[in-house]
Amino acid sequence: MLVAVDCIIFGFDGNDIKLLLVQRGLKPEKGKWSLMGGFLQPAESLEQAANRILKQLTGLEGVYMEQMRAFGEPERDPVERTLSIAYFALIDIHQYEKQLSNEYHPEWFHVKKMPDLIFDHKKMVDIAKRQLRYKAALHPILFELLPSRFTIPQLQILYEGIYDTAFDNRNFSRKVLSTELLIKQKEKDKANSKKGAFYYKLDKRKYKANFQAFLNFIPNPDKLLL
Question: Among 64, 68, 187, 222, which residue's beta carbon has the most beta carbons within 10 A?
Fold first, then answer.
């Protein structure tokens, strides 16, 4: 039995949640879109394999990845019985865009407009999306993708992308501000309107003490892993 590692990399570009894919370089399914995957080598850990595979196929390095789960259906690989350990991450696309190499044609796809994927990779992505929604509800990982100062509309765009839903603008703003976890700044972002939108910062100290406040506007957070 072979052991493989597959990397599921989500990215945020300021407007959309996207998925990084590469074109498979081996038969079968050569040339088709795939997650970043490869086989575990005898002298490396799973984490080392994930980092090596990601760098080899995309050029990305220094990306924090979290182990998700194993996939071991007997027929998942048509050539040989292969157990795959999946890792996932959410990154700022602009922070890493200069690292991308072209050898395996890595490309970002909108999560709602993905091409057909090889083997059981779509199943991996679907499970990773649920895991990401759950994690985002419990940890301030989404704020790490935003500038140090951000507007309520920017925060709304990010949450709508993660949870694949639409929030009412006024209702979203009211609920977010009611958490009392954001610190209002004096300056405004006037790039999109003359009136402008105030900048905010996350109060990380309060967030750690009362992260449950953000669960009030997240859709069904207790069912995100179902």
Answer: 68
